[in-house]
Amino acid sequence: MANMNPSIPGMDEDAQGGYRWESAYDKTWEAIRENEEGLLQPFIDQVLTKAKRSRIAQAKNLRLGLMRHIYVVLDKSERMLDQDLRPTRITLALKVLDLYLRDFFSKNPISQLGIVITRNRRAEKIIDLTGNLKILLESLDKIKEIECTGEPSLQNSLELCLDKLRSLPSHASKEVLIVFGSLTSCDPSDIDETVDSLTRNNVRVSIIGLAAEVKVCQKIAQSTKGVYNVVLDETHFRDLVFNHLNPPPATSSSDSSLIRMGFPPYSNDGEAKPSMCVCHINRNVNFSTSGYICPQCGSKYCELPVECQICGLTLVSSTHLSRSYHHLFPVELFEEIAEFTEPKKCCSACQELMKSGARCKTCRKDFCIDCDLFIHEELHLCPGCASNPS
């Protein structure tokens, strides 16, 4: 009699005639490859280009919250040890957050960020709001040593962040970004009251789910005018986190007010008496003669930007303000050209041959897709317009 057992991919027959799973879970859509004629690659490039250009496009005359104060809440429950995101959810989350922090202050130089974790039905503050990238990266290394146990608590995490963000001025952008890997949340009381408090204090809560869509997460994001997404794979997770790099639109209730800032001079080695900086006063750091001196109280700091712990003055440099300038006046999107009429058309930036690309509406220079994305995402300046003598 012929064997009637079907052949199932990923299963091998054992010695007793049964079947068992041998291969790990694979994503079949990742197995698609470009065919000999290259028919798939133009379609993939078109989809990726439209997705990136949609993130670049911004409405003109849009008020943005450039002074961002954002708390990143990381789920450290036992669900973060699952391996549906390789190698594990928590390992991937820490790696993506490390890349996010390195790019955050390059695009938001006058902003501050803090980190909170939730586990065992509690919320723990790892580091308060700060603009020091080195301290934030050190805190991520400490989180790696913390064990993932218990259940998370959305309400305790939001209450902890709200206590810190409530006292900030109304012109500041108050945000909370939650990386949530569980399907449950252990809350001590009614979470709707916490959501109402977040709405009254203009705190925007965005959530990135690693498991499946949760109704309470969707409600929190909608009520606070945030964004709620669920990841599909590792690459999609990174894209969702990096979508929060650019400053969000300011709410209608946020005030516009003048902000007192100080531009401290830098003291080189040998120009002043040795002293200890305020930012490392609680650490065993040697005295030094270099640093930034607050023009109001004379306190010394190692890096900028920072809020003076003595007089409360915001200390920045002129380059920090200039790097925030491009968010208010972004480079206009170029005109897409499906196919150039010239047989050998070169990009005005990289001089590579191209069949399709984009054209600046002002200087009428043509650029390839890669240079187009680089100009709008990183350079924030059209090379053709900048090199025009007129």
Q: Kindly state the number of beta strands.
A: 19
Question: Strand-and-helix sequence, N→C?
Answer: EEHEHEEHHEHEHEHEEEEEEHEEEEEHH
Largest sheet: 6 strands, mixed
Radius of gyration: 25 Å
Kindly report the spatial arrangement of strands forming the biggest sheet.
Answer: 5-4-3-6-7-8
Integer average pLDDT: 81
Helix percentage range: 25-40%
Furnish the topology, listing elements before pairings:
Layout: E1 11-13, E2 19-21, H1 40-56, E3 68-75, H2 89-107, E4 112-119, E5 122-130, H3 133-144, H4 154-165, E6 173-180, H5 191-200, E7 203-209, H6 215-223, E8 228-230, H7 234-242, E9 261-262, E10 266-267, E11 291-293, E12 300-301, E13 306-307, E14 314-315, H8 318-328, E15 335-337, E16 345-346, E17 353-354, E18 357-359, E19 366-367, H9 369-379, H10 383-386
Parallel strand pairs: 3-4, 3-6, 6-7, 7-8, 9-14
Antiparallel strand pairs: 1-2, 4-5, 10-11, 11-12, 13-14, 15-18, 16-17, 18-19
Helix pairs in contact: 1-9, 2-3, 2-7, 4-5
